[in-house]
Write a structure and sequence with these properties.
Layout lengths: L9 E2 L14 E2 L3 E2 L11 H4 L5 E2 L3 H8 L9 E3 L10 H4 L1 H11 L3 E6 L8 H5 L2 E7 L5 H7 L6 H13 L4 E8 L7 H14 L3 E6 L4 H10 L4 H10 L2 E3 L2 E3 L2 H18 L2 E4 L23
Helix pairs in contact: 8-11
The protein binds iron/sulfur cluster.
C-alpha cells in the first residue's frame, strides 16, 4: 500500500492491534476529536476529548493525496472520530470529501453514529459507497448517557431504513456491548432483528474493552457499577495490547445473541478485535462491512 507523501489519508492502523481482522484500507478523518462524546470512546486516550474540529486545509491536502493512493483499497470515513458530528451541518466538510472521493473513483466505507448521513443520500448513491451505522441499544435513555452528543437510537434506525430504501448498502455496528448496561440477551436479539428488518445486510459486534480513561468516565457515570466492572476487567480479565479485555468465556457469552440472530437471518456477521474467528462468530468476507461496497 502506498504511504509515501500522504498528508491526510492514512493507511489504517488500529494502534497495531494483532487482533484486528480489518482488510487493508485507508482511513480519513475530516474532523479531529468528536462531539458525540461517547463515554466508552477508545480514541480519546490517543487524541483527547473535545468537540469535533475541522481539519485545517483538509480539501487541499486531500486533492494532493488522491494523486498518490492506491485506489484498489477502500477509504474508511472515519475510524477515530465520527464523520457526521453536529458541526457537519454547518461545515459540510464530509459532504465535500465524499464528492471528491467519489469523483476520483475511490471506494468508500462510511462508519457513523449519526442520522445526518442521510442528508448526503444523493451524493452517496452516485458512488461506490457502503454505510455502517453504530447502534448500541434501543433504549434512548441509556444512549443519552452513553453517547450524549449522538443522535438517538430511533434516529439511527430511521437512517438505516432510509439508506436501505435508497438502495445504499448498509450494515450495523453493535459496538461496544458493555456488561450490565446493554448486554441483556433478549434486548440484543431484538436490536439485531430490528436492524435486519430495516434493511441492514451485515452486523459486526464487539465487547467493551476498557482503557484507564474510558473506564474512569464509565465509573463516574455509573458509580454503582464501578466495583463490578473492576472485578470483571482488572481482576478477572486480561491486559491485551493496551486494553483490559473481559475473560474469553464472558466475551463469547455477550457476543452470542448478536451472531446467532444474524446467522439465523442469513446476513453476514463478524466480531471486532475479539480473536474469535470460527464460523460461530465470524461469517463474512470482511469484518468492517467493506464487502458491501458496490
Ligand atoms: S462516535 Fe466514535 S469517535 Fe466519536 S466519541 Fe463516539 S466512539 Fe468516540
Amino acid at each position: 500500500m502506498k504511504t509515501r507523501d500522504l498528508r491526510v489519508i492514512r493507511v489504517f492502523d488500529p494502534w497495531k492491534s494483532p487482533l484486528c481482522t480489518c482488510p487493508p484500507k485507508y482511513s480519513l478523518q475530516p474532523y479531529t476529536r468528536c462531539s458525540h462524546q461517547c463515554l466508552y470512546c477508545y480514541a480519546t486516550s490517543y487524541i483527547g476529548r473535545g468537540r469535533s474540529t475541522p481539519k485545517k486545509n483538509l480539501l487541499r491536502n486531500l486533492l494532493h493525496d488522491l494523486k498518490y493512493i492506491d485506489k484498489k483499497y477502500h477509504i474508511n470515513l472515519s475510524t477515530s472520530s465520527d464523520p457526521y458530528p453536529p458541526e457537519e451541518l454547518e461545515y459540510k466538510l464530509t459532504r465535500e470529501v465524499l464528492r471528491m472521493l467519489i469523483n476520483a473513483g475511490c471506494r468508500v466505507l462510511i462508519t457513523t453514529k449519526s442520522s445526518l448521513v442521510t442528508r448526503d443520500l444523493e451524493v452517496i448513491a452516485r458512488g461506490r459507497v457502503a454505510v455502517m451505522i453504530t447502534v448500541t441499544t434501543l433504549d434512548s435513555n441509556l444512549a443519552r448517557v452513553l453517547e450524549p452528543g449522538a443522535p438517538s437510537p430511533g434516529e439511527r434506525l430511521h437512517a438505516i431504513e432510509e439508506l436501505a430504501k435508497r438502495g445504499i448498502p448498509v450494515g450495523v455496528r453493535i459496538d461496544p456491548i458493555i456488561p450490565y448496561l446493554n448486554d441483556e440477551p433478549d434486548e440484543l436479539r431484538e436490536l439485531v432483528k430490528t436492524v435486519i428488518d430495516l434493511g441492514a445486510r451485515h452486523v459486526v459486534t464487539s465487547t467493551y474493552k476498557a482503557k484507564p480513561d474510558n473506564l474512569a468516565r464509565m465509573c463516574q457515570a455509573y458509580p454503582d457499577l464501578a466495583q463490578r466492572w473492576k472485578r470483571l476487567y482488572v481482576e478477572g480479565g486480561s491486559w491485551i495490547h493496551g486494553y483490559w479485555y473481559l475473560s474469553p468465556e464472558l466475551r463469547k457469552k455477550l457476543l452470542k445473541p448478536v451472531v446467532e440472530v444474524a446467522s439465523a437471518r442469513g446476513i453476514t456477521y463478524a466480531v471486532c478485535r475479539e480473536g474469535l474467528t470460527s464460523e460461530t462468530y465470524f461469517k463474512a468476507p470482511t469484518c468492517d462491512g467493506s464487502h458491501l461496497i458496490p
